[in-house]
Design goal:
Chain lengths: ~550, ~290, ~475
């Protein structure tokens, strides 16, 4: 179906090749997950396949690409577009029309097809992606997931043989990912469309893809069955992949076989490890501290809406704690965060920070938006850290740069850094102001494993220095690692509020809140040990395999 | 209604949305020509009010009316106030003295600050020109799918690349508006003062860079997306919405009207320069009275 | 609720803004933004930007106005070379840009069909313009009659036009000449043209007059045309030394010529804004620059003369108020004087104002003094209606009395001021409607010696019956 044969590419402005001697073969109906850190050349490879770099004529392209047996190396993007369609990360950026039917029919219109036929095809394609009945809707009326489906429909309508997806689920919540992936699986199974997806959230996607290709510095360093990749990835943190928790657990326990399958992992542990029957050792209660934030019967209603988004919430956030706020999309998490960040006032009730209304104590609150890139405002990383911070000195900047591992990038243009680096810069700038309360909105979205680890480290460091964090996330793995307390929100009301371990091990609550049940929790249950959320916890009950992998 | 919804074009009444993109662009263009050509304040006012009538007929929502009213008032009063104060043509009749030339320091520096009658009227004329085009431009934005406009431009044999660039601006308006709001929020959040955390105006100077950076990235993705969907190699985009004969006739009539206006204005201007024909005195009179 | 109120307030403000715009744009004068402003007694119409002259300079911004009975409108010629027809409400009926030069003379035919306009330019065109349409029907070049040598300094121009009842125009074509060697001279010629543009005759036929000819008049009754010379630089070798030349209007042949002996301290007698025939063509009234008013018979014979302003020596300087206009009305012979001047140099200061300056003098035809009307500024021109004389009052370079500027209507029988309409800048020209009800004057901008800009170039139209 697709054969990439010894392809190298060098951008005109660069000395070295961005893509180096890559060879990849995909069969008809095959699904391949292509992973790698930011800047490893994944996007360039997509551009090469789509004909977007050969077209500009400025770079140097060697090797050849065959699609359906035809050499498309020097084809125009339009020609290739008939055989291979590309869906990008953000649907907002790639949708062109205002209504769903116009967007879906765009490619066919460009082919000069008869309007009646287009209408028919649009209807059929929208049905395939689950958007039937939405023909006349504005694209802005669709949810993020629906827009991504529409982006997919706009590609599928030309009946491509190969579908290339560039981080299409990076902004989605777990339910969104699941739903989108099921759609792709259907297309793959029913229509034999080959799918090449770029994504480093390997932990969530592993179960959908039989094959994984990993890129590093312009080369494919692994290409093979996904289940065999885990062994290869051991000690290769530099590849930045976020592996499934069961793989990480297997590695921690030194199992002879690493697998993303929870049941297999549990079986393997039973076979290879000794399980101790210990009682739980973790603290079951959150240690009460000094109250930092007090919410008293706060409600919020958006103008023009019929009902409250936040309904009569009362809670206290204590100093020196990390509190995770979790729940479905639309549960009111961001609204609550905005109120804490002083961006909106409660419609009723009182919200106090250190005894004074939050609005009057905004200087003590740092707020990191989900789209943290928006918060990059300066020309260099150094300037970014010192932005509107009169207390910042060069010494402090150097210290923060060291802590962020960004010393080498001090003079770089922040938006040009990798995603993880960008987030760290903004987070560093926030922390440099030494807020009493730090608000984080989905900070781990799109982050690779090493980035995640660094962010975790920074947050814990902040906490240990007396800072308080209120973090809004879907990532149960992250919450279980850093949160002291978890608040679950559903339709504007708190449905659970307690120690993180207690809340996150309640399978019913997690499902009710649309959260992914951590693989480790399932494995712990299967092993009959007390509920665990992290590999470290499991390791306390299970002694690592004596005879493990080599 | 969110900032994004504000710039969407999907809630207008059907008749307004169904008008062909070519018709809308032609009307917009001809209106612009009229705005440049006509100097008569009352005629400009009538043309301006006409655009508001169009808005009413197209079902512009209350919220959009509010936003448009604010924009239009800013333009109109801004123009009138600035011209009232700094009108430099002659004759000019001071209505009020704000700073007398005898006022110590300020009077000497400014030479006196007056509110000029002619300045107010001149400002109103200039303001009306801008306001009319703003109002009509918003109407086209709020009642059009970018595809409509794209088809229109392509049907006029405009290179697809150019057409795409023109229309992309409209396509991105809702996104741009939403992003501007988000960037202001980000700026507020990164501000170090209590005031900066709630203020909006003080952050405006810093919006451009992040907004531009994001727009460039988004525009690049959009371009890649449409390229791979064969847009620039289109075999002749199909106008899914046919250009009705009645609309064509309307455009022709409006075009003729505009040509007549421009023609008579040109005749008048030429007559001012010496190329005068007594036979055309009626034309000159019309130009003087209404244009 | 608060938001709702805010929204409603915004929309109410917008509606009020629209109402304000409706009111602002509702000017009753539709053309351009602000050409006409209205006062209690009339309107004023902006005539365009002209260079602002210093208040004390000799030559000054001018304008020409004629009342057109058939159109009930004012024909205005400007220093910008534009001819306007403007109705009583200040509406511009048409505007012609005739050329690049200043319009220096204007006359209309009795039937109001044609206007003759003279322009000071390289060609010195005379235009015949259809008053109703604004079309140019024909034109002549003064350069063809008085020369157009580029080395000579000044432009040729039809400096004055007189029209008879048949619509024939009698035009003084003139140019001042300064040679490279510094010698100065005059080139003048009168031509007669019929309403269709046919050249009737030239005077002199084969040469030019070596004197300044600034004024002429025609009489249907006597069939005569008169032209006066105004050569300040009087030389013995000049051929045309006489003061008046009276011609047969049908063929341009010289009928009579008159030499008016000068009075000390003057070397010759100069008539710059006169003479003019009486209605019956029997008399001519003229005023000399030396300050004398004359009554001539139709042959040019001096019947009598009177000192309007006698040159007087004060502090060793001869001061005088030059005479300029001379007309004969039913109420008698009307003469005018202008500012007080130092005989040595126009621009030198004078110790005092001459008591007869800036005045209108009326004498009976028998030479009996009736009255003197003294204005506070120079009477720039006079326009007559039955029983009334309208005068434009311009600068007074001696007193700098800016309040003097304006248009004044005088009862010719009594010399009493009937109306005075002040203007900010000097009023440089005036015309009165045939029935004496309407008055139009052109105001010019000026830069005062203390650096202030006063006035602007605009036409004022006053209704003398307004408010009555």
């Amino acid at each position: 179906m697709l054969l990439i044969d010894d392809v190298s590419y060098r951008y005109e402005s660069r000395e070295d090749c961005t893509i180096r001697n890559i060879s990849l073969r995909m069969e008809q109906g095959e699904m391949v997950l292509l992973a790698g850190r930011s800047g490893c050349g994944k996007s360039t490879l997509i551009k090469i396949i789509s004909g977007l770099v050969s077209e500009d004529g400025h770079g140097e392209l060697t090797g050849r690409i065959l699609l359906d047996g035809q050499d498309i190396t020097h084809w125009s993007p339009e020609q290739i577009g008939l055989l291979a369609g590309t869906v990008y990360q953000s649907p907002d950026d790639q949708l062109f029309a205002m209504t769903v039917e116009d967007e879906a029919g765009f490619a066919l219109e460009n082919q000069g097809m008869d309007p009646e036929l287009i209408e028919k095809e649009v209807k059929e394609t929208l049905r395939r992606v689950g958007l039937d009945g939405f023909e006349k809707h504005s694209i802005h009326q669709l949810s993020g997931g629906q827009r991504q489906r529409l982006a997919l429909a706009s590609i599928l309508i030309t009946k491509p043989r190969l579908l290339i997806l560039d981080e299409p689920v990076s902004q989605m919540n777990p339910q969104g990912v699941q739903s989108f992936m099921e759609l792709l699986l259907d297309l793959n199974r029913n229509e034999k469309i080959s799918i090449l997806m770029i994504e480093h959230r390997v932990n969530e996607l592993a179960r959908y893809f039989p094959r994984l290709a990993v890129m590093k510095e312009g080369k494919i360093v692994y290409d093979g069955p996904i289940e065999k990749a885990w062994a290869f990835l051991t000690d290769k943190q530099d590849l930045g992949l976020r592996e499934p928790q069961s793989v990480k657990l297997g590695r921690k326990l030194n199992l002879s076989e690493l697998t993303s399958d929870k049941n297999k992992t549990a079986d393997r542990i039973r076979m290879e490890c000794e399980i101790e029957n210990l009682s739980p050792r973790f603290a079951s209660d959150v240690v009460p501290g000094k109250a930092l934030v007090t919410a008293e019967h706060i409600s919020y209603r958006y103008p023009g809406m019929g009902e409250d988004t936040i309904r009569d919430l009362s809670f206290i956030l204590q100093e020196g704690q990390i509190t995770a706020l979790m729940g479905f999309n639309g549960a009111g998490k961001s609204t609550l965060l905005n109120m804490l960040g002083g961006l909106t006032d409660p419609s009723s009730g009182r919200l106090l920070l250190g005894g004074v209304p939050v609005r009057k104590a905004l200087g003590q609150v740092g707020y990191l938006l989900q789209e943290s890139d928006l918060m990059l405002l300066a020309d260099t990383v150094e300037e970014e850290l010192a932005w509107k911070n009169s207390a910042m000195t060069q010494e402090k900047i150097n210290m923060i740069l060291d802590r962020l591992h960004l010393g080498l990038y001090a003079k770089d243009f922040p938006p040009a850094l990798s995603k993880g680096q960008r987030l760290r810069v903004v987070l560093g700038a926030m922390l440099a102001k030494e807020p009493r309360l730090l608000l984080l909105d989905e900070p781990t979205t799109g982050q690779d494993e090493s980035s995640l680890a660094e962010i975790q480290q920074m947050l814990l460091h902040f906490k240990h220095n007396g800072g308080s964090i209120f973090i809004c996330t879907h990532d149960t793995e992250l919450a279980s690692r850093i949160a002291d307390r978890v608040i679950l929100l559903e339709r504007g009301k708190i449905i659970a509020d307690g120690p993180a371990h207690e809340v996150l091990t309640d399978r019913y609550l997690l499902q009710q809140s649309g959260l992914t049940v951590p693989a480790v929790l399932d494995i712990a249950e299967a092993l009959g040990i007390p509920p665990c959320l992290t590999e470290e916890e499991v390791a306390r009950y299970v002694h690592a395999a004596a005879v493990g992998r080599n | 209604m969110s900032m994004r919804q504000l710039w969407e074009g999907t809630e207008a009444r059907n008749w307004a949305r169904d008008i062909n993109g070519q018709t809308k662009l032609i009307i917009l263009f001809l209106y612009a020509v009229l705005m440049i050509t006509i100097d008569n304040p009352r005629s400009l006012f009538i043309l301006f009010m006409l655009t508001l009538v169009f808005h009413g007929a197209a079902g512009t929502s209350f919220y959009k009316w509010k936003v448009m009213a604010v924009l239009l008032m800013l333009g109109l009063w801004g123009s009138m106030v600035s011209q009232a104060l700094f009108f430099s043509q002659i004759p000019r009749t001071p209505l009020f003295v704000l700073v007398s030339p005898d006022t110590p320091f300020l009077g000497a520096v400014t030479g006196g600050l007056f509110v000029y009658r002619e300045g107010i009227l001149y400002g109103a004329v200039q303001g009306l020109r801008a306001a009319t085009m703003l109002s009509l431009g918003l109407l086209v934005c709020w009642t059009s799918d970018p595809r409509q406009l794209l088809n229109a431009l392509l049907s006029w044999r405009l290179p697809p690349q150019v057409a795409f660039m023109l229309v992309t601006a409209i396509r991105f308006l809702p996104v741009l508006a939403a992003e501007t709001g988000e960037i202001i929020t980000a700026l507020q959040l990164r501000s170090d003062s209590q005031r900066g955390r709630t203020a909006v105006l003080q952050h405006i100077p810093y919006i451009a860079k992040p907004l531009l950076a994001r727009c460039l990235r988004r525009a690049q993705t959009l371009a890649l997306s449409v390229v791979s969907r064969g847009f620039f190699a289109a075999k002749g985009s199909v106008a899914r919405q046919s250009w009705k004969k009645s609309e064509k006739a309307g455009c022709v009539a409006f075009c003729l009207f505009t040509l007549a206006v421009v023609g008579s204005k040109i005749c008048y201007v030429l007559s001012e320069q010496g190329l005068y024909f007594g036979l055309l005195r009626k034309v000159y009179d019309i130009s003087k009275m209404y244009l | 609720m608060v938001n709702k109120i805010k929204n409603i307030i915004i929309l109410i403000l917008f509606a009020l803004s629209c109402c304000a715009l409706f009111w602002l744009t509702g000017s009753r004068t539709p053309w351009t933004a602000f050409p006409v402003s209205r006062g209690k007694e009339g309107v004023s119409v902006f005539l365009g930007d002209v260079p602002v002259e210093n208040y004390d300079r000799m030559g000054f911004t001018k304008a020409q106005i004629e009342y057109v009975e058939a159109e009930k409108a004012w024909l205005v010629g400007t220093d910008k070379g534009e001819l306007f027809l403007i109705d009583m409400q200040g509406r511009q009926l048409w505007k012609r840009s005739l050329g690049i030069g200043k319009l220096v003379s204007l006359a209309i035919t009795g039937d109001s069909r044609l206007a003759y306009a003279g322009e000071s330019s390289a060609e010195g065109n005379l235009y015949a313009v259809n008053i109703h349409t604004g079309d140019i029907e024909w034109k002549y070049k003064a350069a063809d009659f008085v020369g157009a040598d580029a080395s000579s300094r000044s432009y040729p121009a039809p400096v004055h036009i007189a029209v008879d009842k048949a619509g024939n125009a009698f035009i003084n074509m003139y140019r001042f000449v300064m040679q490279k060697d510094g010698s100065r001279g005059y080139n003048g010629r009168m031509i007669a043209v019929d309403a269709r543009g046919g050249l009737l005759w030239k005077f002199p036929k084969d040469e030019t007059i070596d004197s300044w000819i600034n004024w002429c008049d025609v009489s249907d009754k006597s069939g005569r045309v008169v032209l006066a010379t105004s050569a300040y630089d009087f030389r013995p070798e000049m051929k045309y030394k006489n003061t008046l030349y009276i011609l047969d209007k049908t063929n341009g042949l010289l009928c009579n010529e008159t030499f008016v002996p000068p009075v000390p301290p003057f070397d010759n007698t100069v008539m710059r804004g006169s003479p003019n025939f009486s209605e019956d063509g029997e008399y001519l009234a003229g005023t000399g620059s030396d300050g004398r008013g004359f009554l001539f018979d139709k042959t040019g014979k001096v019947l009598w003369w009177r000192f309007l302003s006698k040159p007087t020596k004060v502090d060793d300087a001869w001061i005088n108020a030059s005479g300029r206009d001379g007309y004969i009305t039913k109420e008698g012979a009307v003469f005018s004087t202008i500012n007080t001047f130092n005989r040595e140099n126009w621009q030198l200061p004078t110790p005092v104002e001459h008591p007869s300056n800036n005045s209108l003098f009326v004498f009976g035809l028998d030479g009996k003094f009736k009255y003197q009307y003294r204005a506070l500024g120079t009477i720039e021109n006079i326009s007559f209606a039955p029983g009334k004389a309208a005068c434009s009052v311009g600068r007074n370079v001696r007193t700098h009395n800016y309040k003097a500027h304006g248009a004044v209507v005088i009862d010719l029988a009594t010399g009493k001021e009937k109306h005075f309409y002040p203007t900010e800048g000097p009023c440089q020209a005036v015309a009165i409607s045939k029935d004496g009800r309407w008055l139009a004057g052109v105001e010019a901008p000026a830069l005062t010696p203390d650096g202030k800009l006063i006035g602007s170039y605009r036409l004022h139209i006053w209704d003398t019956q307004a408010g009555s």
